[in-house]
Amino acid sequence: MSSILSSYDYDLPRELIAQRAPERREDSRMMVLRREEQSIEHGRFAELKMFLRPGDLLVLNDTRVLPAKRMSDDGAIEFLFIERVASRRWKCLVKPGRKMRVGATAKIDNVTLCVEEILPEGERLVSLDNDIDLYAGGLMPLPPYIWRESDEGDNVRYQTIFARAPGALAAPTAGLHFTQQILSEIPHAFVTLHVGIGTFLPVRSENLAEHRMHAERFFISTEAANKINNAHRVVAVGTTTVRMLESAKSNSGRLLAQEGSTDLFIYPPYRFRVVDLLLTNFHLPRSTLLMLVSAFAGREFLLRAYQEAIRERYRFYSYGDCMLIL
């Protein structure tokens, strides 16, 4: 087990980074990792049910991605609206930042935005001179490794079929593979964690113990908590679901219905208390997501699986293929 950043690196050919979703959601490939045997199999996502047992429960994140990306009226500034802090004040990211220093202004739908403050992580606190629905006409905030503008197709495909609760700035991508048909055949429960910008922020500390995660809001209903407590095995769909379940307060070992926030950073040698199986996509080198999955599967085993995925030409990241860790 390693808590050194450089231990979570690998080289990925640029052409393996998926730029668009597959034609059908269920057409993704699925690598299957068996931890006990340290073995790797190759399959299709549509075969997921074959690897599960009676009593297993899928737990999925039903957050809905906000169309939070807007361009200024003159097309010069890109805004990503992160959080509303008051009726006419927002926290946002801007590109290019050099044009939006304190006091700088821009217009969206003829409403003036003014930079009041630059926050420690580079976000801008901006004020608006009028009320406006910033999400009306907004674009999907695709990850930075997708090198194209979002389009109408992304409004559907960068959203899970079960997305319900608006609030995310990134999709819980392990859920993008599901169709209504596949979901209807497997017992499942929904929880909510609103994915924030922290999912894309780089880890800058070589010592992982020094890294701090951004807090993200979550919600677990009484119905979901009861299903999870009664499951034979809990199958977390995605790293966001893992962080939520492992953060949730419990009572004598039983999960409680609750609303809260989590800044839990999972990396080896973390000991999992709730999650038994994990369905996840392939993640960036040196990312907190790769570290979480390394804690679940074992770093050496996981990196060996990544090398095999590269050899077998799997598609990586948000619109890419997935792996099931048993």
Describe the fold and architecture.
Strand 15 and strand 16 form a beta hairpin. This protein starts with 28 loop residues before the first strand and ends with a strand. It has a 9-stranded mixed β-sheet. Strands 5-6-7-10-9-8 form a 6-stranded antiparallel β-sheet, with no helix packed on it. Strands 4-11 form a two-stranded parallel ribbon. It has 2 domains: 5-65 and 142-325, QueA-like, CATH 3.40.1780; 69-128, Thrombin, subunit H, CATH 2.40.10.240. The chain is built from 6 helices and 19 strands. The relative contact order is 0.22. It has helices spanning 152-157, 180-184, 222-229, 239-247, 288-297, 299-311; strands spanning 29-34, 39-44, 56-61, 63-65, 69-71, 78-86, 89-95, 105-108, 111-118, 124-128, 165-168, 188-193, 216-220, 233-237, 250-251, 254-255, 258-262, 277-281, 322-325. By secondary structure, the protein is α/β, with parallel strands linked by helices. Helix 5 packs across helix 6 (299-311). It is globular.
